[in-house]
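agent> Task received from the user: take the single chain below, predict its 3D structure, and emit C-alpha cells. No templates, no multimer pairing.
agent> Plan: (1) validate residues, (2) run structure prediction, (3) serialize to C-alpha cells, (4) report one or two observations.
agent> Step 1 OK, no nonstandard residues flagged.
tool_call: predict_structure(input=
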Amino acid sequence: MSRIVQLTTQIFSDKAAQEKAVEMIKKRDHNEMAVLFPDTHVEPLFAALSELPVPIQARSYAQGQGKLKAVEWAQELGAKVVEQWTIVDGVFTADPEKVATAEIIAQLNYREAQELASAGTGLLDREALALAEELGVEIHIRSIHQSASGIGTVIDAEGGDKGMKAVSAVSDVSLISITGIAFEGVAGIDATAFGALSNEGISVKLVSQASSERSLGLVVSQKDAQRAVTALEKAFEGVRGTAIKATEGLTILNIVGRHNYALERAIYELRRNNVWMHLIANSVEGHQISLVIRGTNEKKA
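)
tool_result: status=success, residues=301
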C-alpha cells in the first residue's frame, strides 16, 4: 500500500465535487490506495465504490478526526503518502479572502505546517502532522478540481526552499499585562499566573516576558479576557505593587518560515503603514514570529 486518500467533509457539500472524487478514485490503481471518508456519507460512497471491478479498502472517520485517522491508517498499512482531497487548491501564503495576491505554497516542512496549524489554518492538524513527521509520511493536499497529477501543497521533511512561507492571523484576542515591583528574582510568578488561568480553563495563546522579570504578557481569547483578569487579581492578591490589565480587540499576526531578517522587515513595513505592535514573540525553533496588533489593522497588516 503506497498511499491513503482522505476525502474531506467539504467534498460532500457539493454534489459535483463528490462525483468528481468518485471519478478520480475509479481511475486510480486500487492496489496502491485505501480510501478514508466521513462517516456521515457512508451509504452514497459505498454505493459508488461498489461499481468498481475490484474491491478497494475503505474506512470512515468521525467529524474532526479525518486527518489524524489518515496518518494512523498509513502507519498500520505501511503507506508513505496521505493524499488529503478537498475543494481548496492547497495551503495559501495568506487568507485569499483577505489578501488578493495570496499564492499556493508548493512545499512546507512538518514544523512550518505545525506552526500554520496552530495559527488556525483549517487544512492542517498539529497532532496528525506530529505523527506524520515521526513516521516519515508525506501529506499531499490537493483539490479534486485539479488534474489527476496535480498536487497543491506537499508537506514533508525537506519543505522546499528556506525563507518566509506564509502570514496568518488569529483574531479576537486580548493581551493580559501583569506587572509588579516585587516580581524580580521571585520564583513561581509564572507558575502562579498559569495555575490561576488553568484552574479557570483558560488557554494561553502567546507568552512574553522581559528579562527584568517585572512584567509578564499573556494573550488569551477575548471572550476569556475578563475572567482571566479576575482570576489573576485573586491569585496575586496581597502582592505589593501588582497591576493587571487587559487590552482587548487585538490580533496575533503570525509570520511562518525561516529568514534572518524577517523581524526587521516586518517591523519596518508595519510601522511604515502606521501599524503598531503591542507585543513581539517568536517560537523557540525559529519557524514563527508572532506580532500582536490592533484588530482593526488586521487586514491591512
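agent> Step 4: summary for the user.
The two ends are 45 Å apart (CA to CA).
agent> Done.
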